[in-house]
């Protein structure tokens, strides 16, 4: 068999995984979901889930990936023995990656469009109404959002075709820290706006009476989406982790970084929304209207705006790369075709569904399924069904199907790291995580 590539260093794994985790999920989707689900109530459930379920699930995916050195389909086949149904979890994961990529690249295309707008200084001197009108005009434009989406897919396919170390790892290492720095600057600016108090109260004051089945499943879906878990992306990245690397601490670092960036995004967006009179429930337009408004009010706004959208494009790219990588690893290993061919096939397949997602976003679009746009349908299907079910099956697999000795062997790098809290993590994977996912998932079904 061909020698598989590995990540070059521990920092490389953290950065590549963080690159996958950090993206539109944090900056676009988190504020959207928090805004629609009562702010503080959502945040508190989100934090609890990221900690109690997200971390052990991320570790479980690493365990499966590194143990098998394979794509998600091959991983379940190799680890579960002959004639088993477990590879279905891998197939579901690859399908999920494909569905996410389809609607994710819609918004990814917008980031590219907005980068163009910031270069051309389109936000200068505009009031809120005009900035909102720009968003509507852009998403309704006959071909521009489609072109941006296709460009984004092509960039993703290009990097993925080049492979793990040169493409994925190198870029993530430099660009992720830069994004963090610029977000801190934006945060400071947002906190000086007149609506800062209201915005922070909205985000941080939990109203426990608002927590219901819908908030629970939305927070679960959001944390899985944001951490890239429950569908095999991190099984795939786990398969490139070297045998000496400490997966537990890498996972903890990534969960902390991802949570920090989501909260930062909230601290940037909600104070601005309250200052400029934008509804926190504004949905898709929230980030794309609040952010240009903030930049307008800043000294050096032009440069900050440009830098921000540039970094957002890159953060988004490192996420689309990890999504396409799931498809490419599976196609190239299962069908024995080259990475380049697999990247082209994967991107073309995604383009077809992705096109529908983008078109369905137009005002008055007739691309509706059961009253939902194709875009919303894909988002809802993946975050509320595929990822929770995938996540549940993954922790069950590691907790109950794999041998305890094998799992502990992975967690301790063959006994060279102390078992200590890793025993506790194993118990959480075995008992707490599946029960928690199961209860939340059922609470949603009961509501229907
Ligand atoms: N976690 C990414 C984000 O927050 C999205 C993603 C989901 C990437 C699933 C890979 C797998 O933007």
Record keyword descriptors for this entry:
two-stranded antiparallel sheet, 1% strand, 448 residues, Hydantoin permease, 18 helices, mainly alpha, binds phenylalanine
Condensed summary:
With 448 residues, this protein is mostly helical.
How would you describe what is shown here?
- This protein has 448 residues and is mainly alpha-helical.
- The protein has one domain: Hydantoin permease (Orthogonal Bundle), CATH 1.10.4160.10.
- The protein has 18 helices and two strands.
- The protein has a two-stranded antiparallel ribbon.
- Strand 1 and strand 2 form a beta hairpin.
- Helix 5 runs antiparallel to helix 14.
- It is globular and about 65 Å long.
- The mean pLDDT is 92.
- Bound molecules: phenylalanine.
Class from secondary-structure proportions: mainly alpha
Radius of gyration, in Å, reads: 21 Å
CATH class: Mainly Alpha
Q: Termini separation (Å)?
A: 49 Å
Q: Which descriptor suits the 3D outline?
A: globular
Unreliable segments of 5+ consecutive residues:
none
Can you count the beta strands?
A: 2
Q: With helices defined by DSSP (H or I, 4 residues minimum), what is the helix count?
A: 18
CATH homologous superfamily grouping: Hydantoin permease
CATH fold node name: Hydantoin permease
Largest beta-sheet characterization: 2 strands, antiparallel
Instruction: Please tell me the CATH architecture by its name.
Output: Orthogonal Bundle
Total domains: 1
Give the overall average pLDDT: 92
H/E element order: HHHHHHHHHHHHHHHEEHHH
Helical content stands at over 70%
Beta-strand residue percentage: under 5%
């Amino acid at each position: 068999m061909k020698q598989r590539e590995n990540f070059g260093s521990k920092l490389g794994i953290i950065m590549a995984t963080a690159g996958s985790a950090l993206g539109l999920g944090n900056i676009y989707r988190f504020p959207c979901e928090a805004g629609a689900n009562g702010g503080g109530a959502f945040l508190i459930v989100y934090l609890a889930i990221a900690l109690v379920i997200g971390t052990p699930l991320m570790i479980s995916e690493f365990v499966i990936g590194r143990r098998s050195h394979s794509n998600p389909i091959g991983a379940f086949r190799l680890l579960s023995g002959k004639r088993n149904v477990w590879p279905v979890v891998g197939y579901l994961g690859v399908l999920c990656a494909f569905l996410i990529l389809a609607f994710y690249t819609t918004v990814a295309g917008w980031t590219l469009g907005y980068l163009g707008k910031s270069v051309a200084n389109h936000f200068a001197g505009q009031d809120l109404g005009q900035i909102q009108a720009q968003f509507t005009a852009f998403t309704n434009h006959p071909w521009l959002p489609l072109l941006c989406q296709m460009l984004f897919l092509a960039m993703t396919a290009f990097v993925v075709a080049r492979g793990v170390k040169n493409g994925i790892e190198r870029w993530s290492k430099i660009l992720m820290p830069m994004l963090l720095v610029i977000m801190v600057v934006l945060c400071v600016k947002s906190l000086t706006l007149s609506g800062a108090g209201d915005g922070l109260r909205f985000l941080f004051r939990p109203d426990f009476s608002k927590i219901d089945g819908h908030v629970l499943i939305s927070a679960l879906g959001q944390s899985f989406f944001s951490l890239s878990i429950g569908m095999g992306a991190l099984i795939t990245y786990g398969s490139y982790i070297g045998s000496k690397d400490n997966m537990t601490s890498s996972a903890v670092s990534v969960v902390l970084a991802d949570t920090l960036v989501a909260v930062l995004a909230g601290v940037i967006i909600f104070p601005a929304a309250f200052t400029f009179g934008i509804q926190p429930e504004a949905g898709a337009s929230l980030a794309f209207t609040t952010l240009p408004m903030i930049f307008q009010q800043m000294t050096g706004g032009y440069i900050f705006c440009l830098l921000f959208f540039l970094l957002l494009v890159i953060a988004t790219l490192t996420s689309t790369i990890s999504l396409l990588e799931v498809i490419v690893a599976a196609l190239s290993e299962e069908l024995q075709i080259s990475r380049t061919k697999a990247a082209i096939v994967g991107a073309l397949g995604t383009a077809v569904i992705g096109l529908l997602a983008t078109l369905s976003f137009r005002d008055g679009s007739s691309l509706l399924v059961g009253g939902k746009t194709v875009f919303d349908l894909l988002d809802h299907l993946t975050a509320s069904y595929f990822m929770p079910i995938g996540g549940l099956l993954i922790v069950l697999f590691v907790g109950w199907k794999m041998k305890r000795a094998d799992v502990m062997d992975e967690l301790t790098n063959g006994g060279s790291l102390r078992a200590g809290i890793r025993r506790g993590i194993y118990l959480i994977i075995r008992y707490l995580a599946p029960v928690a996912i199961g209860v939340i998932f059922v609470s949603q079904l009961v509501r229907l």
